[in-house]
Specification:
By secondary structure, this protein is an alpha+beta fold. It folds into 3 domains: about 80 residues, Rossmann fold (3-Layer(aba) Sandwich); about 70 residues, Dna Ligase, domain 1; about 240 residues, 2-Layer Sandwich (D-amino Acid Aminotransferase, Chain A, domain 1). It is about 35% helix and about 25% strand. α4 packs antiparallel against α5. The radius of gyration is 21 Å and the shape is globular.
Length: about 450
């Protein structure tokens, strides 16, 4: 087992990893930018190393700075959290070259799944259902036009190296194809330095369903149910729940087994998430995230396990603490992402926390690194906390979430907590009758 782990991240995820390490008796090293000198993860870690100025490109995304922090602190393992360098194959490879263990999958697996075209090809090889579309990079608008005519409009143009909706364009008919194709390429080269574009059939009212998988890197892998992440705004998840209100136990078992089988063939190591669009009883693979997800706590709640602990165990060469037959889904869990944003514009709202009170009681978990007097810096993602509730039924989980939101106090800045209070009153959400477009459509109606 590792004596010391460096957490190459910040905020609530860094704090979340530190907590598990403490329970395992492992020393922790926090890295921080100059803007995060007073951050909670710095206070809670056993050691801390400043790795640069506020800009993430010169701190949290600086591979040389993190390698230096490992050398200074004597850390022989790194947990990347999510975001930043968590899906950077080069980072994982450099750590391996320095004999430092990257707590996650191999550089090869990160590289394959980080390219959406190669990921789709690989999943098709493993028998995982995929969205109809191009088999690889589109050479130009003529190829896109021919394929779009074949599979039918609307279609979706996507950047192969993309994420968060960047380089993604919905094309309703052929008249808009050429212009949107050029826009997608332009966004892709600016954001990812890669203008590779591919094409998929655009599903009109799908759900976003993702399957949590876990492997030991030796050919053993399991699935841990699905999460419904269909409440989204600008392709960013807002609320997640498990199990999905619309997935049957038979469907869960079938798609879960296909994902676990694929991971066994890959000899995948650690946590990963296989993401699908689901419509009319069919699953269509869209991408795989080779890291811990923001929404992993809902899976932990219904299965009663610590995914970070399991990540550390398999990274140290130890077996997983469970087998598929031991994994039983119990109850229902929901997570709300609390962002420092001003409604209804959703503009960033950095500033000083005047008062913070975390909700409590049975089935409540608040993952956050804020505290009274903490100043939220303007340089990073606006996520400041995750409110997770767990109950025996979805109905009780919704009631518990309403109560927890009423207890939550974050004064001094604007947050998105009121958004969830409104969502939880909506009959369509209460009935589980929503898709990936529901939230934006509802918000647009509210503006009128």
């Amino acid at each position: 087992m590792f004596n010391k782990i460096l957490i190459a991240n910040r905020g609530e995820i860094a704090l979340r990893v530190i907590r598990t390490c403490k329970e395992m008796g492992i020393k922790t090293v926090a890295v921080y930018s100059q803007a995060d000198a007073n951050a909670m993860h710095v206070r809670m870690a056993d050691e801390s190393v400043c790795i640069g100025p506020a800009e993430s490109s010169n701190s949290y995304l600086s591979i040389p700075s993190i390698i230096s922090a490992c050398e200074i602190s004597g850390s022989r393992a790194v947990h990347p959290g999510y975001g930043f360098l968590s899906e950077n194959s080069k980072f994982s490879e450099i750590l391996r070259d320095h004999n430092i263990k990257f707590i996650g999958p191999s550089p090869e697996h990160i590289r394959i799944m980080g390219d959406k075209i190669n990921a789709k090809k690989k999943m098709e090889e493993f028998g995982v259902p995929c969205v109809p579309g191009s088999n690889g990079k589109l050479k130009g608008t003529k190829e896109a036009r021919d394929l779009a005519r074949k599979i039918g409009y609307p279609i979706l143009l996507k950047a192969a190296a993309g994420g968060g909706g960047i380089g993604m364009k919905i094309v309703e008919n052929e008249a808009y194809l050429e212009n949107l194709f050029q826009q997608a390429k332009s966004e892709a080269i600016k954001s990812f330095n890669d203008d590779t574009i591919y094409l998929e059939k655009y599903l009109k009212k799908p759900r976003h369903i993702e399957v949590q998988i876990f492997g030991d890197g030796k050919g053993n892998a399991v699935h841990l149910g699905e999460r419904d992440c269909s409440l989204q705004r600008r392709h960013q998840k807002v609320l997640e729940e498990t199990p999905s209100p619309i997935i049957s136990s038979k469907e869960r078992k079938a798609i879960g087994e296909k994902c676990a089988s694929a991971m066994k063939m890959m000899k995948y190591e650690g946590a990963g998430t296989v993401e699908f669009l689901y419509e009319n009883g069919e699953f269509f693979f869209i991408e795989m995230n080779t890291r811990l997800q923001v929404e992993h706590p809902v899976t932990e709640a219904v299965f009663g396990i610590d995914l970070v602990r399991e990540q550390i165990m398999v990274a140290a060469g130890l077996p997983m603490s469970f087998k598929q037959e031991n994994l039983n889904l119990n109850g229902h869990a929901i997570e709300c992402r609390i962002n420092a944003e001003k409604l209804p514009q959703f503009t960033p709202s950095p500033g000083t926390i005047v008062q913070f009170h975390s909700p409590g009681g049975l089935g409540i978990r608040m993952d956050s690194a804020i505290y009274n007097g903490y100043r939220i810096p303007p340089y990073y993602d606006s996520l400041i906390g995750k409110l997770i509730v767990f109950a025996n039924t979805r109905e009780l989980a919704v009631k518990r979430l309403k109560r927890a939101l009423d207890e939550l106090i974050i004064d001094g800045i604007e947050t998105t907590s009121d958004l969830f209070k409104s969502i939880l009153k909506h009959e369509e959400f209460l009935n589980g009758d929503y898709n990936i477009h529901w939230l934006e459509n509802w918000l647009n109606q509210e503006k009128k």
